[in-house]
Design brief:
about 300 residues, eight-stranded mixed beta sheet, 10 helices
């Protein structure tokens, strides 16, 4: 019997953990020749998530939990579950039921057909706002164009299945700023995608706001590419050339037309503009230096306070 490990990060999911366990259990009750375990990773929840997990683990042998010492974030939580999973394949999914467990049999089928990684391509239901759809599409377009990984539009979800050999490679990564979606694409192996429609969150409120989305985008871009540094250099050359040509033309015109070069307002605006541009470029460089600084410390991605296996 093959064993499937289900990794579920949980942050303030006290109203969801029992329901998602029951749904997954119902799925595997209808699957012959497959055992399963569910590894919940409590990412420093402030509600009763841990108490719910401990109660479930006492009632069901397949329920495992990992409790962090504090909140480390979604990506380290997924990584912790993967590091501790021992199944023939590992499925990672969110704990709010927006990733439908009903898709698990199809993912296993694609895996049995010889695919090492089965990723999902998310589509939104009609009730999702136009703004949400467009910002999501824009996110993946920018991420793919500025980084060295190619993420399918909607294919950046952390709802995926990985074969044990791909999981072993994932465990070897020790990057400070984890971007698992990019790493999964970067690893290669034989991959296939399947579509799914994101469901409504069952309980609680999402903590994934615009600020976190932008931070996540910067993490993805800077983790896989130095293109922003090249863009900064190109901007420097471009504006230097424009300033030389523009100022030279202005000087020649002043001599021919016998006019004075005046206008302190335009001068101040030019200084402010180029000063802002320099700060942007320095900021891009600073991001990369900060990553080197944090990586050099070699601190762990997460700290486990308690687990039941």
């Amino acid at each position: 019997m093959k064993k499937i490990s289900i990794v579920i990060p949980a942050y303030n999911e006290e109203g969801n953990v029992a329901m998602i366990h029951q749904k997954i259990k119902d799925i595997f009750d209808g699957l012959d020749h497959y055992g399963f375990e569910i590894i919940f990773v409590n990412d420093g929840s402030r509600d009763n998530t841990q108490q719910k997990l401990e109660a479930l683990s006492q009632q069901y042998d397949e329920v495992k939990f990992i409790e962090f010492s504090r909140n480390f974030g979604h990506q380290p939580a997924v990584k912790a579950g993967i590091d501790n999973a021992r199944g023939n394949a590992v499925i990672s999914m969110d704990g709010d039921l927006q990733h439908p467990p009903e898709l698990i049999p199809e993912m296993i089928k694609k895996w049995e057909e010889g695919n090492d990684i089965v990723f999902t391509i998310r589509t939104y239901p009609k009730e999702i706002s136009w703004f949400k759809r467009k910002t999501s599409d824009f996110f993946y377009k920018i991420l793919s164009s500025l980084s060295d990984v190619n993420l399918t539009k909607g294919g950046g979800s952390d709802f995926r299945l990985m074969d044990a050999k791909a999981v072993e490679v994932m465990r070897s990564f020790n990057e400070d700023d984890l971007f698992l979606r990019g790493l999964t694409s970067w690893m290669g192996f034989k991959q296939v995608g399947i579509d799914f429609t994101a469901c409504e969150r069952l309980s609680g409120e999402s903590s994934y706001n615009l600020k976190k989305m932008l931070t996540f985008a910067f993490t993805g871009i800077t983790a896989f590419s130095v293109k922003p540094l090249y863009i900064a250099a190109y901007l420097g050359f471009l504006f230097s050339a424009i300033s030389v040509l523009g100022y030279g033309t202005y000087v020649i015109h002043s001599f021919i037309a016998h006019t004075e070069i005046s206008g302190w307002a335009s001068l101040i605006m030019t200084i402010v503009f180029f000063g802002g541009l320099q700060l942007i470029i320095m900021g891009i460089i600073g991001i990369y230096l900060g990553k080197i600084f944090k990586q050099a410390k070699e601190r762990p991605n997460y700290i486990i306070k308690n687990k039941n296996f």
